[in-house]
Design goal:
mainly alpha; 23 helices; 639 residues
């Protein structure tokens, strides 16, 4: 379900990590501590069989308070499976910084991730503390949590990249015949992305470049397909359907750019809510968003991030001056360690909004009430844990925001607060999110199973459904999801379910073709769409239809025809072409975009022109046709 960390960890930490999306981690730790004490053990000394017993008894009972019993049982079973294969860290040994160093190396390519920036700071301070003979266990634990977050980030990113790769490959097949340096560059980028995907590596810059080239080529293809030259050489105006397709391409491209922008600058907008791109979202909804507007917004956010980083560095300098004036105490030592981590994080270019806020509160407590500072610091940590956990739970952050603000105000006044009330709200939301995830998984299973019954239909709708089914399989395998990954899962489900309905309609149309032309004709038709296959004799009577007399078209290349509505509209008369025209009419019903087959006369290649018609060519082989008139088949322009 979830990939375990590369380095060993204390076994009791594994259930806390894997079930932390259902129950508060602190509550889980207390359950494990109480259960260990009841068995005469320390929590660090719990082995796999003992933990398995605790999970089946105490933990399972606690989970049923927030999620259905069936879901609780499944999640406990998943954790037990992980326990039996885990390699525990040796009990009683000092924490090993190799855990953090290994994580820093593994994620060094992703230096701009907030977790990676924080991990570098944690590792740097941990080295200093270890050299000074100080306890580094809290830093190692934080580093392990950061590594787990990055592992989840990577897993989710690979799912998204895999979906992008499949769409890029499908688009490349459509534009491949255009030729040119952009097509060659796209092919090279797809190769790089495919190799990286196989190695479990993210290449966001290459994906973005490939998407941009694909958008340009597809826009050019759509425009050239439906924009022939009018008399006198001037381009004819695009018809409304063509304009709608081009606009849809533009909005699809710019919507993805906006989504990437929002995700990239999420730490900034969380610190500065006034910088959220609401106006761009409104433009996207209205269908008026442009690439220029997104690029301009990116420049504004980059400037704002640089300004905020400078402000936070200046703020840190003020905190350093305040802590230097305080008397020594264990709480001040913790504050000093947090300050050192902050400094290294900011020096590495990472924002530290939450950490600065917490450090302010810690120093204020030390200045106002040193005797209560340790208690206030513990409560402050609990509030921070609630806030971080809520970010991945739908609706939790908004519901908890007033309570968190009130609790922090109370702490600032030196008053006591009860974080457990906030945890109860969060756990209720966690239970709802877990039930939603279970529903998502069931919907995904249904789409995948239904697609398997329709995959023999080779139309474009079914092909796209197949790509989404692959994405759903990958999303289904993910463990606990971030908020953004959950949103992508929901979006994939909506798109796949809509395509499933369309594919069923196409299947019904195919059944009608079977009733009209016979099963052999349908079998041959479905076997050749977009697959480069050979229909052979299964085309049967289609190729024996009488030739439709049409006027010669001197502007067409040799052995090429234009087809519309099952009739030949341009090209020289040929006995076989009338039958192929009837075949292409049935291909249109099934949503096909291209067709290849061979018969005793040679090879045939047809491509849909974007307006309901077809361009058809014949030659000794498909490759020979592509070499001779591939560009014309794609764009309608003879070279």
């Amino acid at each position: 379900m979830t990939t375990p960390p590369a380095a060993p960890e204390a076994l009791y930490r594994l259930p806390v990590r894997l079930l932390g999306d259902l129950v508060s981690p602190r509550a889980l730790e207390r359950i494990l501590q109480d259960a260990a004490q009841a068995r005469g053990l320390s929590v660090q000394a719990l082995d796999a069989p003992t933990l398995e017993d605790i999970l089946k008894r105490e933990v399972f009972k606690r989970l049923q308070l927030s999620v259905p019993a069936a879901l609780a049982k499944r999640r406990v079973s998943d954790v037990i499976g992980e326990l039996l294969s885990a390699v525990p860290a040796p009990v009683g040994e000092a924490p090993d910084l190799g855990v953090l160093e290994d994580g820093a190396r593994r994620f060094s390519l992703y230096f701009d991730w907030p977790e990676a920036q924080r991990l570098r700071g944690v590792l740097g301070v941990a080295r200093q503390q270890q050299e000074a003979g100080q306890d580094v266990a809290p830093l190692v634990r934080e580093g392990q949590d950061l590594i787990a977050l990055m592992e989840r980030h990577l897993e989710e990113g690979l799912v998204t990249q895999g979906q992008d790769l499949a769409e890029l490959q499908a688009a490349f097949r459509r534009v491949q015949g255009m030729g040119g340096k952009d097509v060659r560059r796209l092919e090279s980028l797809i190769g790089q992305i495919e190799e990286a995907q196989g190695q479990g590596m993210l290449l966001p810059a290459e994906v973005e470049r490939a998407r941009t080239i694909t958008f340009t080529l597809r826009k050019l293809l759509e425009s050239s397909v439906v924009q022939p030259l009018a008399p006198g050489g001037a381009p004819a105006a695009l018809d409304p359907e063509a304009q709608a397709r081009v606009l849809a391409l533009e909005q699809e491209h710019v919507a993805r750019q906006l989504a990437d922008l929002i995700r990239e600058f999420e730490p900034l907008t969380r610190a500065r809510p006034d910088l959220e791109s609401r106006s761009l979202r409104e433009q996207q909804t209205a269908g008026t968003l442009t690439v220029g507007a997104v690029e301009a917004r990116r420049a504004e956010l980059e400037a704002a991030r640089s300004a905020l980083l400078a402000e936070q560095r200046a703020e840190l300098a003020g905190l350093e001056a305040r802590q230097s004036a305080l008397p020594e105490s264990p709480t001040l030592h913790e504050a000093r360690v947090a300050l050192d981590v902050l400094r290294l994080t900011l020096d590495g270019g990472g924002l530290a909004t939450d950490e600065l806020r917490d450090l302010h509160a810690t120093l204020a407590a030390l200045e106002a009430a040193p005797a209560n500072a340790a208690r206030l610091l513990e409560l402050q940590r609990s509030l921070a844990e609630v806030e971080r956990a809520a970010r991945d739970v739908p609706g939790a952050s908004a519901e908890l925001a007033p309570g968190l603000a009130a609790a922090r105000e109370a702490l600032a006044r030196g008053e006591d607060v009860d974080p457990e009330a906030l945890w109860r709200v969060l756990e209720r939301r966690m239970g709802e999110a877990a039930q939603q995830r279970q529903d998502f998984d069931a919907r995904a299973d249904h789409v995948i199973q239904e697609y398997d019954t329709l995959r023999h239909l080779a139309g474009e709708t079914t092909q796209k459904l197949g790509r989404l089914a692959d994405t759903l399989r990958a999303q289904r395998r993910l463990g606990a999801m971030s908020g953004s990954a959950r949103e992508r899962y929901a979006q994939t489900l909506e798109e796949a379910e809509a395509l499933l309905a369309e594919s069923r309609a196409e299947y019904q149309a195919a059944q009608e073709v079977t009733a009209s032309f016979g099963a052999d004709a349908l079998s041959g038709l479905l076997g050749v769409f977009d697959l480069g296959g050979s229909a052979g004799d299964s085309l049967g009577g289609f190729l024996t239809a009488e030739a439709v007399p049409v006027p010669p078209q001197p502007d067409l290349p040799d052995d090429t025809w234009l087809i519309r509505g099952g009739a030949v509209t341009a090209g020289r008369a040929d006995l076989a072409v009338g039958g192929v025209a009837a075949l292409l009419d049935q291909a249109t019903l099934l949503g096909a975009r291209s067709l290849r087959f061979e018969d005793e006369r040679g090879a045939w290649v047809a491509r849909e022109d974007g307006t309901g018609g077809w361009r058809l060519a014949r030659g000794p082989s498909a490759s020979a046709i592509e070499d001779r008139v591939g560009g014309w088949l794609t764009t309608g322009e003879a070279r």
